[in-house]
Amino acid sequence: MITIIDYGMGNLRSVQKGFEKIGFEAKVSADPADLQNASKLVLPGVGAFKDCMDNLREGGFVEPILRHVESGKPFLGICLGLQLLFSESEEFGRHQGLGIIPGKVVRFPADMQVAGEELKVPHMGWNQIRLQQDIPLLRGIADGTSVYFVHSYYVVPDDAKTIATTTDYGMTFCSAICRDNVMATQFHPEKSQQVGLRILQNFGEMK
Fold first, then answer.
1. Percent of the chain beyond pLDDT 90?
2. Which domains, from first to last, does the chain contain?
3. Please, are residues 135 and 178 in contact by the beta-carbon 8 Å criterion?
4. With CB atoms counted within 10 Å of each terminal CB, which end of the chain scores lower, N or C?
């Protein structure tokens, strides 16, 4: 069973519909006990880092998430669900994350430009990913494929080997990570049309 964690932050139904569209049963759950029985976990997220971490802690989700990751079962983070995996974020102060992936979450610089034109923050819309690892989550996804982003912060892993894809937006940033059974994307597969559905399918087929 694919279980999507409902901790009060995120576009959960669109992720669930994405899995259902390609034939996978996906359950949205706000019960930490359900996480123990999940074969695969998905952590979406939209909003402020601190609020999301507070909700995870208050909802009793942190320990079940850590146990799932330690068990070796597949785990997918999406957007803020990627950022929450990291050690800390500088969003509105310094806040501790789940600490599964060593590194930090930082904001895009305010003065980014391309060809003399100022780039807006948040980074919103379609942009390309550059493959840095050959991983099952991205099987069948070509280098340079466009996916959908909405974010003002990006992750900086301590270990560059964790980086699965990069994207250029005034600078080169990490747009997806993979370490063993833990995978996460800054972009939204559920909003990335057929490419995104292929990514969700790859995750659903993992053992």
1. 90
2. 2-204 (3.40.50.880)
3. yes
4. C
Query: What is the pLDDT, as a whole number, of residue 125?
Result: 97
Which of 13, 18, 48, 49 minimizes the C-alpha distance to 28?
Answer: 13
Burial class (CB in 10 A: 0-12, 13-18, 19+), 180: exposed
Quote the CA–CA distance of 202 and 138 in Å, as a whole number.
Answer: 7
Alpha-carbon span 10 to 86, nearest angstrom: 18
CA 32 to chain CA mean position, Å = 20
Distances (CA, A) of 20 to 41, 101, 121, 190, 202: 15, 29, 32, 11, 13
Question: Which pLDDT score is estimated for 113?
Answer: 82
If DSSP codes are grouped into helix, strand and coil, which group holds residue 12? helix
Confirm whether 79 is a catalytic residue. yes
Residue of 91, 151, 174, 190 with catalytic role:
190
- Say which of 52, 68, 79, 123 is annotated catalytic: 79
Both structure tokens of 88? 């800390």
Distance CA 50, CA 94 (A): 9
Could you tell me which residues come within 8 angstroms of residue 38 by beta carbon, excluding any fewer than 6 positions away? Answer: 1, 2, 3, 68, 73
Distance separating alpha carbons of residues 18 and 67, to the nearest angstrom:
26
